[in-house]
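TASK: fixed-backbone design
INPUT:
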């Protein structure tokens, strides 16, 4: 009997947590990121606008292995908790209110961001220990065509952006990518500006 009660309590907690996010509508996200290729790291800022659909006492975003240097709610610093998988802000949010949440963060993604061809200076001179020959042509091609790219549309983006591991969450994003001007940056959507500093 005790096991059944414990199971019911755990299930109630799990479903209650899932329902909270259903009571928030994230409408828009302004993202600014800078890939730091030699460290395989992302530095970024994201500002979300969200509407409270029903009274709740917290808001969360999925955020895997991220460090947050600033968290602001409606232009004021706010206390937060970071579990390593999720960032949460505990506050009484009232139905019908709009809010802005700004997060400044950095992360070294373990998946969904790939830094290909970086940190391979001198790859053509190296020999593999097994064959005592030069690196394979495929590795040489990667070394000569440096890339940074992501995967995980709608899921797993939370490894490089505080976001939602939920395919049903729909948010309009504006993306600003800061990168070395000698490289080409490609993204989905409409290019609204291209600035070289």
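OUTPUT:
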């Amino acid at each position: 009997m005790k096991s059944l009660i414990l199971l019911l309590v755990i299930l109630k907690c799990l479903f209650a947590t899932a329902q909270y996010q259903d009571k928030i509508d994230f409408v828009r996200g302004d993202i600014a990121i800078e890939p730091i290729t030699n460290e395989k790291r992302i530095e970024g800022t994201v500002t979300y606008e969200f509407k409270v659909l029903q009274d709740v006492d917290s808001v969360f975003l999925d955020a895997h292995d991220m460090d947050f240097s600033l968290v602001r709610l409606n232009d004021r610093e706010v206390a937060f908790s970071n579990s390593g998988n999720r960032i949460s802000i505990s506050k009484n949010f009232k139905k019908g209110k709009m809010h802005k949440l700004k997060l400044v963060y950095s992360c070294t993604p373990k998946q969904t961001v790939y830094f290909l061809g970086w940190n391979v200076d001198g790859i053509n001179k190296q020999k593999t220990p097994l064959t005592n020959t030069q690196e394979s042509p495929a590795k040489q091609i990667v070394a000569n065509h440096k890339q940074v790219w992501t995967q995980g549309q709608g899921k797993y983006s939370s490894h490089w952006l505080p976001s939602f591991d939920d395919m049903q969450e729909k948010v309009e994003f504006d993306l600003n990518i800061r990168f070395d001007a000698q490289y080409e940056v490609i993204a989905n959507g409409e290019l609204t500006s291209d600035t070289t500093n």
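COMMENT: The longest strand covers residues 24-36.
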